[in-house]
Specification:
heterodimer, A: Transcription Regulator spoIIAA, B: alpha+beta, 5-stranded antiparallel beta sheet, ATP-binding (chain B)
């Protein structure tokens, strides 16, 4: 059950690429990584690429809700782009799709 | 399996109630569903439903016991359907937990009102055709997915019932 996390830090933005399985086993690592980025100073945007995520369950939904709340409190932008079909399905059936800022297609 | 065989083939798996084994549970049911001929999308939905049921066991079942406990998974393979039961011998579900988990994230809610807690049972109900939650020596979540044939809705199973 592999988890991929790649982070790239630009001047005012952090980019995170997630891949593999996000479940209760791998979630703590994902949460820790995202939270550590959100709480860094001098950052106003976090983008997460979910195209390579093969499995995600409600544990992952919980992480994103937590991160989005944290971003609102800290006045930061949280965006997701390039959802894998499975993640899009999960976002839609849970209703998170209507709450999350999603950029499709372009990576820049 | 021969035609009209009423008895199910049963595949059982017992795992430690620990998050690191969730992937093993998903792989097992994915293998069973695959050999029954479910589509890729259906297999992924079944994996997700079973993943949610097992995650509930890991998170809630053995909170009050010192022993980490086990997750018991049974796959009942019928001609027309797959019945998966995920059970534990833990403390049981509270009504509050069930109510909380049956609610989706409503589009009308503001982000501040969203709960980071479980959506597990809601997802299971959404992804599977039939769901039953029983209290036995712990909790058993029984979920059924029908094999769709020739585009006919899978939950129309009266014919095969009658033949048995």
């Amino acid at each position: 059950m592999d988890l991929l996390i790649q982070t790239t830090s630009l001047e005012t933005e952090h980019r995170v690429v997630l891949g593999g399985d996000i479940d209760a086993f791998t979630a703590p690592k994902v949460k820790e990584t995202l939270m550590s980025l959100v709480t860094k100073p001098d950052i106003n945007r976090i983008t997460v690429d979910l195209e390579a995520v093969e499995y995600m369950d409600s544990t992952g939904i919980g992480i994103f809700i937590g991160i989005m709340k944290e971003c609102i409190q800290r006045n930061r932008t949280f965006e997701v782009h390039k959802l894998s079909p499975r993640v899009e399905r999960l976002f839609r059936i849970t209703g998170l799709y209507d709450h999350i800022a999603i950029r499709k297609g372009e990576s820049e | 399996m021969g035609p009209n065989r009423p008895q199910a083939d049963v595949i059982q798996l017992t795992l430690p109630s620990q998050a690191e084994y969730l992937g093993v549970a998903r792989l097992t049911v994915s293998g069973v569903a695959n050999r029954m001929g479910f589509s890729y999308e259906e297999i992924e939905d079944i994996k997700l439903a079973v993943g949610e049921a097992c995650t509930n066991v890991v998170r809630h079942a053995y909170k009050e016991t010192e022993n980490p406990g086990s997750i018991h998974i049974q796959c009942h393979v019928y001609e027309d359907r797959l019945v998966i039961e995920v059970g534990d011998h833990g403390v049981g579900f509270s009504n509050e937990l069930i109510a909380e988990q049956l609610t989706p994230i409503y589009a009308g809610k503001s982000l501040e009102d969203l709960d980071e807690g479980g959506l597990g049972l809601y997802l299971i109900h959404t992804l599977m055709d039939e769901v039953e939650i029983r209290s036995e020596s712990g909790v058993v979540v029984s979920m059924t997915k029908y094999v769709r044939q020739d585009g006919v809705a899978g939950n129309d199973w009266t014919i095969s019932e009658a033949e048995i």
